[in-house]
Amino acid sequence: MSQSARPGPRGRWALDQSGGSLVAIVLAVTGGLPFGTGVLGAAPPDAEASRPTTGKTAVGSADHEPALPEKAAPLNRRQTVFIDAAGKRLFLKTKVVLRRGQLEMLCCLKQTKEHESILSIDSKAYVVHAGLLALGAKPGHPVQFVPEFKPPSGQRIDIFARWKDAKGHEHRVPAQKWIRTSPDRFYVVRMDRLPDDLTLPDDLPLRYDEENKELSWYGHMTRPMLDRLLKLSRDPGYQKAIRKFFADSQYRPMTAHWVFAGSTFFVDPATGRSQYGAEGGELICVANFTTATIDVAAPSSASNDALLYEADTNRIPPVGTPVLLELVPVFEKPNNVRPARGATSEPSGGAKPEGRPNAP
Description:
Elements: E1 5-7, E2 13-15, H1 22-32, E3 73-74, E4 81-84, E5 89-96, E6 102-103, E7 105-109, E8 117-121, H2 125-134, E9 139-141, E10 153-154, E11 156-164, E12 170-174, E13 179-181, E14 186-190, E15 206-209, E16 214-218, H3 223-230, H4 236-248, E17 258-260, E18 265-267, E19 274-276, E20 284-285, E21 294-296, E22 309-311, E23 322-329
Parallel strand pairs: 7-8
Antiparallel strand pairs: 1-2, 3-4, 4-5, 5-8, 5-23, 6-22, 7-20, 9-10, 11-12, 11-17, 11-23, 13-22, 14-16, 15-16, 17-21, 18-19
């Protein structure tokens, strides 16, 4: 992408609307200007700041937003991405846009994937990529589907969600707490034939495929369903299949972590210009995308019939709630440094040494 920078108000550097070179951004962040002085341009005056307050804090208002660290500096003119150099973390100002349904994203770009993402942010994806580079995070590579599947890799990124409830109390949780596995899929076991004493119920999604010799179940199986199905036949193979369907179809909290996959570049056929892949919305994903900036470090899929995760509705604040996402790169400890007693460390993934997204 081409980059055009110019002096902004108070000597700050403003990034051209067309986007910019990721390397140039990092140079501006780490060398051209000190952290905490307003890095990549000044935002326009905040109209909300001049409005009189009513004494009532509403969800979605500026007063309802969690506070940023004092020295956090904005990386974009919309002031939605901030870098905390001392704390080695990025902050993303987002809003809740979805609380129910299957997911492909934790956070998408504004007006892109809000129908399958819990959060949305008014920013370009490359700004987040550049901020992670400035913190020293190393990108790996996005998911690969052909000629064989390879999961995304890169430096581990721990993500926390911060928000205030209706009473003004602030909360901070790992972002995984808002996500759970989705049981809305088919579960299949091989079965040569149905037991002679079994009659399949018409009102439950238990089916037998005579041609392929498969017993299948669809969706979440409740405990009453399990008890009822087990009573239909004493056949050991059938009983084992039903218990497996029950175990596999339960809701489970997300346990996978995220990695800095780094997206990729592609050439826009309409303009002939190189574009950063994640600008289509794939900022922080829970279904593997070849264009993801940050992706889940576990086999997943972006195909409609194989989504793995859904929103855990009761844990997510109301739609419109401002949420401050905290992105924390996890750096490996040197080999000669012994962890504290009881502490554990995990490798952050197969990071590549270069600091740019993967070129085509």
